[in-house]
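Problem: given the chain below (274 residues), write out its structure.
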Amino acid sequence: MNQGATKSVSQSTIQRTLLRLGLRSRRLVRAPMLTAVHRRRRLEFARQYSSWTSTEWRQVAFSDESRFMLHRTDGRWRIRRETSERNHPATIAGTVQAGGGSIMVWGMFSWHSLGSLIIVEGTMDQYKYASVLADHVHPYMRIVFPQDDGIFQQDNARCHTAASVRAWFEEHQDEFTVLPWPANSPDLNPIEHLWDHLDRVVRAMDPQPRNLAQLATALESAWLNIPENTFRDLCDSLPARLAAVRSAKGKDANQIICKFCAIYGPSAVSDDTI
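Solution.
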């Protein structure tokens, strides 16, 4: 910043000036890049299920995959921005999946109970996912929802929408239904907060996992010890999440969700309070 200036300015002076202007150093927000189509479909989904209360959402089993790094380098770029600019497109970094030295896991849960946490060898494909459906999803749905009134949630990853997977769901449509899910909507899926919980627990361990086998064991232990009130509050946060998406007109709603969702303390949220 001093190049071309007639008088040198110290770094501390620059920092004080930026702070006085309200431009604080903050990490880039990481969120999916949403197209106009994504935003429209997210808003349609939030409106379609606006009448659902916690009672209806307690019939839904949420699922997802996540990847955990053995030695994390988070690449946290920092920028200067005003507090109100948190969700400005210019201050958001698009996210991509990380590479080696990591473990992929799949998990599911509902308000009633945690399901299995599965260590996925390599990357999930339609064949591995078919095994997960048969060995874990099917028995979970039968046991937790014996009246065949359960609803299964999954995102739109390719392995979830393959023809063979769709055929499997059709074979079991009398036992449970599949919730249509808008693409690029991790902010709506409460399991994302469980992944964050696992990451915090594992990163706080002393000593740290030294290899992938130890990381897998640590993740499984952290999953089994998630408090019941944590995953129940997350399921009960769905009305708040949908209200946040409606308030954001389909855009990423993480900032509003973080303010109101159950992970930060259970609260009743309506369109009037967001």
